[in-house]
Structure formats: structure tokens, C-alpha cells
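Dear Dr. K.,

Following up on our conversation at the group meeting, I've run the structure prediction for Pyrroline-5-carboxylate reductase from Actinopolymorpha rutila. I'm pasting the input sequence below exactly as I used it, so you can double-check it against your construct before we proceed with anything downstream. Let me know if the numbering doesn't match what you have in your notebook.
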Amino acid sequence: MNAVQQHTIAVIGAGKMGEAILSGLLRAGWPANRLIATARRAERGEQLAERYGVRVLPNTEAAAAADVLVIAVKPQDAGTLMVELAPAVPAGKLVVTLCAGLPTAFFEKRLPDATPVVRVMSNTPALVDQAMSAISAGSHASAEHLALTEEMLRPLGETLRLPESQQDAVTALSGSGPAYFYYLVEAMTDAGILLGLPRQVAHDLIVQAALGAAVMLRDTGEHPVALREAVTSPGGTTISAIRELESHRVRAAVLDAIEAARDRARELAAAAE
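The predicted C-alpha cells came back this morning:
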């Protein structure tokens, strides 16, 4: 067990994202006896304990037993949770929040003075160890706290340090990002069916095309425009498709959609205050 894995981590509110954290840590070799989960419903807690072999405790007991608290509840539930947890959180205990839209200041003013808080925006590809997690330090979090958070998230994919002022943009672009790709794949699958392909054939073609395109973007270092132009022959099929996308303002719709997601993240923060 390395030094980081000697820390006990409690995931408070182990829904989809919290479960992704637990399963990723276990796949990376984190000892199950160093992981704690909490769940609102008893049957959900039983499911987590059976599936992962972790302890499932009430929120306050988990907060007292762990070295690091990972807050993974819905943003609208965070205020009530902090009222419950604050008396059980000793000063100096690291709190890592995955609550979309909520700034570190939200937690700092509800927890004991000088509590170190690190804000994280991750995404659901953590379930397959391909997450992108952006982390930002609160006013009391040190470089050591950031390093511990990175070590905890590294088994789930890539990590990136950013100023907290950029986190709402990260939420809109990367946190919600997988949903945009699933939406596109859904539409392309329907197009394949319209053109006469069986659903599974259309799905397999699109998924492999998406995977190959992502690897090329990552590994070649080429700008996406250059990669797109390499597929776009003069007078060919691809440019005909691109013309239709442009005529339907797909690029503008993407810009508007991601800006709307950013604005919603800000609204969630304002409502929680």
C-alpha cells in the first residue's frame, strides 16, 4: 500500500459519479477497507456493500471515520448535507466536492474554519477509466491537498489543474460533454437506420468511427480542422454532409448549448446560496 492509499476516503452520496469514484479506486488497487460510502436509501447502500465490499455508514459516522470526504450529492442537496456534516468534520480534514456549480466558498463557510476544500469536475467516463477531471483549490487547500486529490482521481483517467473561475466552463464543456456525444451517436444511428442499415450495424460503425477519431485527435496533435479536411474531398460525400450541417447552424447550436450549460451551472450555485 502506498502512502496515498493509507488514507481512508468516504464518498458521501454514492450515486453514479460517486460509484464511479469507488469502482475506479478499487480497480487501481485501493484497499476496500480504506473506502466508505453513504447512500440515501438503505437498498442502495446494501447494493454498494455487496458489489464493492466497502463499508456503508451514515453520513456523520463516515465523516468522522475518513481522512478525505468526497461530496458527490446533487447540488441542491448540498446545503442540507453540510448542516448535518459540519459538526462531524474536524478542522483540517480534506473535503473534495464533485457538486456541479458549487464553489469552494459554499463549503468553506459551512464547515469549520480553515477546512481545505478542493473542487472537482469529472465526468462519467470515469466508469471506464477515461474521465477528464479538472481540479481547483479553495482558499485553504495546499499543494499537498491538490496532489492527494490528483492521486485519488488518477486511476479514473486524466486530471488537470485550473483556476476555480474556469470551473463553470469545464462543467459545461467536459462534465456534460459525454452527453453531447451520446446525443450525436443517437442521431447518427437513426440516420443509419433511415439509410437501410440494421440498428446494431449502424451503432458499431459509429462507435468505432468515434473511437478512431478521438484517438487520432489525441495522438496526432493535428488540429480538428486539418483532420476534417483530410476526409473532405472536393465535390465528395463529406462536403455535402458538412454543407447540410452548416445550413442547419449546427456549429452555432453547439456554442449556444454549451453556453446554456455554463449558465445553468451558475444558476445552481446562486440557488444553493
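Two things stood out to me. The mean pLDDT is 92. The beta strands are 9-12, 35-38, 55-56, 68-71, 94-97, 117-121, 131-137, 157-161.

Best regards,
J.T.
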